[in-house]
Amino acid sequence: MIKLYDFLSCPFGQKVRIVLAEKALTYDLVNVDLSQHENRKPDFLRLNPFGRVPVLVDDDTTIYDSTIINEYLDDEYPEPPVLPPVGSSAMRSRARSFEDFADTSFTPAGGPADRRGLQARGRPRPESRPAAPSVGRARARLSESRTAGQQFSGG
Fold this sequence. Notes:
The protein is an alpha+beta fold. The chain is built from 6 helices and 4 strands. Helix 1 links the parallel strand 1 and strand 2. The longest helix has 18 residues, at 89-106.
C-alpha cells in the first residue's frame, strides 16, 4: 500500500498527488502539518532526514523529493506513462527541463508555513511584495516565448 506524507498546500506534494491521480493509484494520505513543525519530529525525520515533504512509502521503499518520487511512480507503475517513452531521449530531457523549471523558477521559495510566520512577525504578506528577481525573469521569458511563438527550451 502506498502512503504519501504531505502538507496539502505544498506545491511539491501537489505534483506527486497529480501523478498518483493520473495513474489512478490508491494511497493513504498522511498530513504533516508544517505549521506545527510535525516535519521535525523524530518519526518523520526517520523517513526523511531533511524534514521535507512529500515522502512516499511504497511497501519497503521510502522516497523523498517530488521529482524522484514521480520518476519512481512512473518506473514502478508504468501505465499510463507520465514521461515520454525511454527511446525518446530528447523528449524525456525536455520533460525533465520543464520539471526542473517548475521546481526552481516557477514555484516560489518558501511555502504557506513561511507566509504565516512572516505575517506573525509583522512583515508584509508575500503577495504585497514584488516577486523575486528570478521569478520575474522566468515570467518575462515565458511571456516573450508565447508572443514570439517559441517554445520554452530550458535554461
